[in-house]
Design a protein that fits this description.
The complex is a heterodimer of chains A (about 250) and B (about 350). With about 250 residues, chain A is an alpha/beta fold. Chain A is about 35% helix and about 25% strand. In chain A, α3 runs parallel beside α5 and α4 crosses α5. Helices cover about 55% and strands about 5% of the residues of chain B. Chain B has 12 helices and 5 strands. In chain B, the strands form 2 sheets. Chain B has a 3-stranded antiparallel β-sheet with strand order 2-3-4. In chain B, strands 1-5 form a two-stranded antiparallel ribbon. The radius of gyration of chain B is 26 Å and the shape is globular. The N and C termini of chain B lie far apart (about 65 Å). Classes of the chains: A alpha/beta (about 250), B mainly alpha (about 350). Bound molecules: adenosine-5'-diphosphate (ADP) and magnesium ion. Magnesium ion binds next to α1 of chain A.
Chain lengths: ~250, ~350
């Protein structure tokens, strides 16, 4: 499949997601380009996390189609595990298992390995490398419960990176971190995108962060995409009135 | 019954002659008791009921244990016979079967007869029993572990997946199932015993089918069935609670990392491992300490269906408090060790 190398990682057409007949997401068109960093901004409750759940194949849309590397996932279509395993999400709150850091980082690899404990296939090296990337290799044996907030989020990031996913989905990954850890994590995301060409979809309500990291930025309001543009255009020459208001409002804050 | 100043009270239990095994033979029969004629002697640890030819029961007294036939009995005979005569009219009545009485004994018997000593002696006897590897005790402990262990294993195989299913999924009938489970968690074991008894009895719905793999009453397999019915709701209920206590986002995160539904459920169970171990401990505690159901379904048959709890009941009713204490202490110690082992295991086996 990687042989075809479509320019788009995802193509969404008329995607609708509802909970108990309340529509929370309605995306007419959205392409996520291969290798880009796409930031999605918007106030809370507009459906950003819902969109990421669809992109991670955790839930299926109620209407429309979602294409991933050319393969369509429709409302009734089963979501193949193979697709889900090429994507992963880091959530706002690092949800770590109550085990050691190493077990946490190896978790996704162990899931893929299935029930074959004897075939380590370089697992330990990959875990060590991922921890190296987030600067935490000294904490390998520490229990995840005892980590600070910033460390925990970096472990969550390492746990995602070790899988070398095609797409990394980030749901407000730095929302409750100190500035030092925010800049550490931004550096990690940037280097991951540049060195491994991982496609990144970053949900944030920090427009400075979107500006620092993203190639393109989209604004979500009430479940629909108001504007999607190159980062520079989005911030400097917003076309939509609501984008202008949002950018300005956040600038004041 | 008030005792004279020189005498102390002692509890004895009346048994009908055929309900207890003879512990010594005719050659041990006290000569001074000869005019009553030997019919079998029945032990009550320190007090004996000697069944005579002319019906009724006779109380004798001695200090030896089951293992060694008593020689001392002759020495104490006068006093014993006096007691016998005193009690005789009451004891010859069938209605006194299995009841406990107080009788008066001479000064000699009073030494160290208080409860504290009873407990201490029970404790020492427990150690002596365990140390000596008494084959009867070994059989009882073995059967207790066999029955409760297999019942717990079956309960875990049914209960843990059921608890995980109820805690992690939503389906039609889930609420009904949960309320049934809660009822099962507080169900009186003796009623479970009655139910299983009726089911398995030869005229019952299951027992009458004549299917070979349906266990017959008064077998260890029947006891396992009863104990499984008692413990699996506890295992399932506590597992469900533990699983529901895990951060709901964890399952989403685990799925986002590429887990299959089964892997996600397993990850949640592993995260709730302390609760799952506690559910097993609760299940095990409920059955290893349970009397009513195993008594009904198993029948407390010596060497076949006698477990620790039913043995304690029997020995207490026989007035053999030392042995009852010893068995009770063995039961306590075993339950404690098993729980300790399970907790240590869960603390150690995760994380390299
Ligand atoms: N599982 C769900 N069931 C019902 N409503 C939901 C569910 N998940 C999200 N919602 C609703 O969808 C809307 C969008 O939520 P979300 O995607 O979390 O927003 P955001 O991440 O932008 O803050 C909210 O109004 C929320 O209440
Ligand atoms: Mg959100």
């Amino acid at each position: 499949m990687s042989g075809t190398l479509l320019p788009s990682m995802y193509e969404l057409h008329g995607v609708v997601k509802s909970y108990e007949r309340r529509t929370v997401l309605r995306i007419a068109e959205l392409d996520v380009l291969r290798g880009e960093v796409l930031a999605l901004v918007g106030p809370s409750g507009v459906g950003k996390s819902t969109l990421l759940r669809l992109l991670n194949f955790l839930e299926a849309p109620n209407e429309g189609t979602l294409r991933f590397q050319g393969r369509a996932v429709g409302p009734d279509g089963a979501m193949p595990l193979a697709l889900r395993r090429r994507v992963t999400t880091v959530f706002q709150r690092p949800i770590l298992l109550n085990r050691t850091v190493r077990t946490n980082v190896a978790f996704g690899l162990d899931l893929r390995r299935g029930w074959r404990p004897w075939s380590a296939n370089g697992r330990d090296d990959r875990v060590a490398e991922a921890l190296e990337r987030v600067g935490l290799n000294s904490l390998e044996r520490q229990r995840a419960r005892t980590l600070s907030g910033g460390e925990a989020q970096r472990v969550a990031l390492a746990r995602a990176m070790v899988l070398e996913p095609d797409v990394l989905l980030l749901d407000e990954p730095t929302a409750n971190l100190d500035p030092y850890n925010v800049s550490l994590i931004e550096d990690i995301i940037r280097s991951l995108n540049q060195e491994k060409h991982t496609t990144v979809v970053l949900v944030t309500h920090n427009i400075f962060q979107a500006r620092r990291l993203a190639d393109r930025v989209g604004l979500l309001l009430d479940g629909s995409l108001v504007e999607l543009a190159e980062s520079e255009a989005f911030f400097d020459r917003p076309r939509d009135e609501r984008t202008r208001a949002f950018v300005r409002g956040d600038m004041v804050y | 019954m008030a005792c004279e100043r020189s005498a102390s009270e002692r509890r004895v239990t009346v048994w009908w002659e055929t309900t207890m095994p003879p512990v010594f033979g005719k050659e041990d029969w006290p000569r001074s008791f000869g005019d009553h004629g030997y019919h079998g002697a029945y032990e009550c640890r320190r007090l004996f009921f000697l069944a005579g030819r002319d019906a009724g029961f006779f109380v004798a007294c001695h200090r030896c244990t089951r293992a060694s036939p008593c020689r001392e009995i002759e020495r104490n005979c006068d006093r014993v016979c006096a007691v016998v005569r005193e009690l005789r009219p009451a004891l010859s009545d069938h209605a006194y079967q299995g009841t406990t009485h107080r009788v008066c004994l001479g000064d000699e018997e009073r030494r160290g007869e208080d409860t504290i000593n009873e407990i201490l002696r029970g404790f020492w006897q427990a150690i002596a029993l365990i140390g000596s590897g008494d084959p009867v005790l070994r059989d009882i402990v073995g059967l207790t572990f066999h029955v409760s262990g297999v019942a717990l294993a079956i309960s875990a195989i049914i209960g843990i997946p059921l608890g995980a299913l109820l805690g992690l999924t939503r389906f039609v009938g889930r609420r009904l199932l949960i309320s049934l489970l809660y009822t099962g968690m507080g169900f009186p074991p003796v009623v479970v015993g009655l139910f299983v008894y009726l089911m398995l009895s030869r005229s019952g719905p299951l027992g009458s089918m004549g299917v070979p793999w349906i266990p017959a009453l008064f077998t260890p397999a029947a006891m396992i069935v009863a104990q499984t019915v008692i413990s699996f709701p506890l295992v399932a209920g506590f597992t469900m609670a533990a699983v529901m206590g895990v951060d709901p986002m964890l399952r989403q995160q685990v799925r986002a990392l590429g887990a299959t539904p089964l892997q996600a459920a397993t990850a949640v169970l592993v995260e709730a491992r302390i609760g799952v171990v506690v559910s097993m401990i609760a299940g095990f505690g409920s059955i290893i300490s349970e009397v009513g159901a195993v008594m009904l379904v198993g029948g407390n048959i010596e060497g076949r269906t006698r477990v620790l709890t039913t043995a304690v009941v029997l020995e207490t009713r026989k007035g053999d408090f030392d042995l009852a204490m010893a068995l009770g202490i063995v039961l306590l110690a075993l339950a404690f060790l098993v729980n300790l082992a399970m907790l240590t295991l869960q603390g150690r086996s995760f994380d390299e």
